[in-house]
Amino acid sequence: MENSVKKLFERYEKLFRMALTDQVDMDKVASSYAAAFVAASPAGVCVGQNDAHLKQVMQQGFENYRRIGTKDMRLRNVRIAPIDEHHCLAHVAWTAIYDRRSEPDISIDFEVHYLVQQLEDAPKIFGWVSGDEQAVLRQHGII
């Protein structure tokens, strides 16, 4: 499972980077997710379905990342904590690079913790826990 989960996030990195240039197929992005998922952050907990609404929200999210100057999203590391033969917790370390126009670019390292399930086919993300992204962006003068 470890290799297939790492490949999932390598693929996700590639898709995210393509989305930052507005060159991504949202069906491919959505294929990384299970039919239903849960997300938690300091803003609260939400549940959702992998449907047209998810694709729309994700497209808006990528547009917002471009608007605030996100130039790149790099995968630094994937550390897997197995739960059982079909599930794991993937601790994923990312680096986001922002264009601050009149100031030098800034890199921000962060982690997101993903719940992943692998049954017969490729692994799918069914949940994640993230920090307060908005506070970090404000702290660094991005927003």
Secondary structure blueprint with pairings:
Layout: H1 2-19, H2 26-30, E1 33-41, E2 44-49, H3 52-67, E3 70-82, E4 87-100, E5 103-117, E6 124-130, H4 133-139
Parallel strand pairs: 1-6
Antiparallel strand pairs: 1-2, 3-4, 4-5, 5-6
Protein name: Nuclear transport factor 2 family protein
Characterise this structure.
With 143 residues, the chain is of the alpha+beta class. It has one domain (2-139): Roll (Nuclear Transport Factor 2, Chain: A), CATH 3.10.450.50. It has helices spanning 2-19, 26-30, 52-67, 133-139, and strands at residues 33-41, 44-49, 70-82, 87-100, 103-117, 124-130. The chain has a 6-stranded mixed sheet, with helices on one face. The model has no long low-confidence stretch (mean pLDDT 96). This is Nuclear transport factor 2 family protein.
Which blocks of ≥5 consecutive residues have pLDDT under 50?
none
Order of strands across the biggest sheet?
2-1-6-5-4-3
How many strand units?
Answer: 6
Query: What is the rounded distance between the termini?
Result: 38 Å
CATH architecture: Roll
Q: In the CATH hierarchy, what is the class? A: Alpha Beta
Averaged pLDDT: 96
SSE ordering = HHEEHEEEEH
In DSSP terms, counting alpha (H) and pi (I) runs of 4 or more, how many helices?
Answer: 4
Main sheet overview: 6 strands, mixed
> What is the domain tally?
1
Oligomer: single chain
Structural class by helix and strand composition:
alpha+beta
Helical fraction equals: 25-40%
CATH topology: Nuclear Transport Factor 2, Chain: A
> Could you tell me the radius of gyration in angstroms?
15 Å
Assign an overall shape. Answer: globular
